[in-house]
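Question (not urgent): is this output format expected?
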Amino acid sequence: MRSPLTRRGFLAAGSGLAAATALPALSGCSALAAADSDPDTLVVHSQLGTTAPGSPTYLAALKRFREENPGLEVRNLVNGDDLAQVYETSRLARKEADVVMVNLYDKTLAWTDVGATVDVKEYLDGWGLRARVRPEALTAWTDGEGRVRAFPYFATNWPVAYNRELLDRAGVDTIPTTGDELIAAARRLRAKGIAPVTVGGNDWTGQKLLAQIIQTFLSEDEARHVYTTGDFGGRGAKEGIDYFVALRDAGVFADKAQGLISDSMTTQFNTRSAAIVSQMSSGLAKVPEEVARHTEVGGWPLAPGAAHDKPTILRTYTLIGFWISPNGRKKIEHVERFLRFMYRPETVSRFIEESGRDMALRSDTVSTGFPLVAAAQRLGDDVSQVLLPDVYVPPAASQPLITATSTSFTRGTSAAKVRATLEAAYRSV
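Got this back:
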């Protein structure tokens, strides 16, 4: 589906956001103002640099790049979840960074279409870097017009982590692979005062798990249709919603899951308060060693008649890419040097070895220091992959879907109400 955001809409929306956007969150307004004025400064806007997974490795890479390029200053601007909004505001002022490191989701889906960033296909090919990219990643970053939105970089596996020690304590002998087994395990865990499945039902983590469960009865093509159009009325989508509601009302999810967020979810699992979590690889990398050694990774349990023959996981190659801005095109020689450096096998390997990151680039390196990440990489044919809906959900529906997620995780909400709430998220599209 073509994004409803037009160039005029982008400009109008950005002007309304300007007053509310926290520009000081960048490394100072003066840094932003210099973004396109200094030909010997490369400005990179990213979420890496503070506590985000991979930040120490990234900062070390910047240090090495600066040492190799003494005549080129590199300025790293850092934002968190508001990066896309801050970038759009800076672009309106024509003071945007040269390179942006962010995922393909929500606002960013429209950037290349409205000229906020440039098609990088000619650079990917011209610089000879296409062969470094996994084919699945290149497909994911290519839009319907054949444009490559950004240089792919971070990927992620998204399995389900099971604390074997807590399951044993509750008398659960095997990792659940069916819905009935999961419900039985949840009852045993609750009897021991242990939360079964912890989930951020009030943010994106819950939205992803809900989407995963709904896809239990959907093929990939059917799931793509559902999340592109918001049509949850087909038989498979209805069965998936019914399955979710049955699990929820049987007590599978932690108490008050509709109010939890990713941080509380992670805390519950990492402190042994909950036995099961659906966790992306960057989160698996942060599981404490004393918990990780008792943890197994697998997929989400299936229901009878599922469209998949094995428990499911999510996987995506669009976690972080290097987007080139119109300002970056003016400094394309500097951008080329930077991206060639970041694409080097040794640079990629350090992210895998030091930070436990999954990469969208080809590499034989394995996350040996992050056993759960490595275990997720080895799952292979033991699990079935379902669709991560991010690149198919229209930007206008992304945040409403998170609100719908909280409603869905509220116990007692009927399947019909869950469906109506999900479909309502698409009304403004």
